[in-house]
Amino acid sequence: MLIWNKAAVCKLLWAISCKKDKLWVKWIDAYYTKGRDITSISCPANSSWALRKIFECSQIIISASGWDRFIKKGSFSIKEMYKHLHGDFVKVPWSRVLCQNLASPRSLFISWLAMHNRLPTRARLTMWGVVDNSSCCLCNTAPETVGHLFFECAWSSQIWTMVLAHLHFQRGPGNFTNELAWIMKSAKKKAAKHQVALMFFAECVYAIWLHRNDHIFNQGSKTVSAAQLFRDIRFKVACRCREEMRKFF
Ligand SMILES: [Zn+2]
Q1: What three-state secondary structure class fits 195?
Q2: For residue 170, how far is its CA from the centre of ligand 1 (angstroms)?
Q3: pLDDT tens, position by position, 171-204
Q4: How far apart are CA 202 and CA 193, in angstroms?
Q5: How far apart are CA 149 and CA 147, in angstroms?
Q6: CA-CA distance, 134 to 132, in Å (whole number)?
Q7: What is the DSSP string of 15-40?
């Protein structure tokens, strides 16, 4: 946000530099720049805080050897300036799964934690010496890891199976690594069906995590069947999807 804000301030500097036909630009030109190039003069001592911030950006333009690389179709591009200030970065493979996903922010956050293996599963808590039972509370047949809980566990795999069947995908559920790899491929496709699958993925991870928490902390006070949980997830996805996605509900 700081970098984006600086890039946006650079656009104000550009407006002053190219003497845009705006009242505030004319005012600055009349009182401070007086027809000179703003990047060639220092900030006036009596200028306001806001104007000082604009003047400070002239160093960025000087170090970039002028405006040319930031001008697109005759106008200053904040995006180009942002890319210049940000520098090169590696694009993470899961960005499409989370960034273009219409699922609830909570479900996206829990999915992000799951992708980075940062959820406090029983397997991790056992490793830290917090608990002494690492088995999955939903099936009691395997250690509770992210890979098992989503969607290798017999209970949670039922939900993901229902999702795949609901969207007419001809495949069975795998463990979290396999399903994440599949959903990453799916995220590259623009079709509404794949966008709905993205939403289902995040909402399923979140719902299963909440259900698991309920089992552990409330002794499963809310007895919910896999079919009921699937209906709840489907309702949440349907509430948040766009018009062209409604045909899947
Ligand atoms: Zn299990």
Answers
A1: helix
A2: 24
A3: 888 889 999 999 999 999 989 999 999 999 999 9
A4: 15
A5: 6
A6: 6
A7: HHHTT-S-HHHHHHIIIIITTS-GGG
**pTM for this one?**
0.71
Please check whether residue 99 is in contact with residue 92, taking contact to mean a CB–CB distance below 8 angstroms.
Answer: no
Residues 6+ apart with CB under 8 A from 16: 25, 28, 29, 33, 38, 54
- Please report, for residues 82, 100, 105, 172, 220, the alpha-carbon distance to residue 187 in angstroms, rounded to integers and kept in the order given: 25, 8, 17, 18, 34
Are β-strands 75-76 and 71-72 bridged in parallel, bridged antiparallel, or unpaired? antiparallel
pLDDT in tens, 27-59: 888 888 888 887 777 777 778 888 889 888 888
Integer Cα distance of 248 and 229 in angstroms: 18
**Residue-wise over 130-141: b if at least 16 C-beta within 10 A, else e?**
eeeebebbbbee
**Cα(158)–Cα(231) distance, integer angstroms:** 12
| 157 C-alpha to ligand 1 centroid (Å) | 9
Q: Do residues 13 and 29 lie in contact, with contact meaning Cβ atoms separated by under 8 Å?
A: no
Helices (H), the chain: 2-17, 23-28, 49-56, 58-63, 78-86, 95-99, 105-115, 122-127, 146-147, 154-166, 176-187, 192-217, 226-240
**CA atoms within 13 Å, Cβ hemisphere of 217:** 6
- How many angstroms is it from 186 CA to the middle of ligand 1? 26
Residue 99 CA to ligand 1 center (angstroms) comes to: 29
Using CB atoms within 10 A of its CB, is residue 233 exposed (0-12), middle (13-18) or buried (19+)? buried
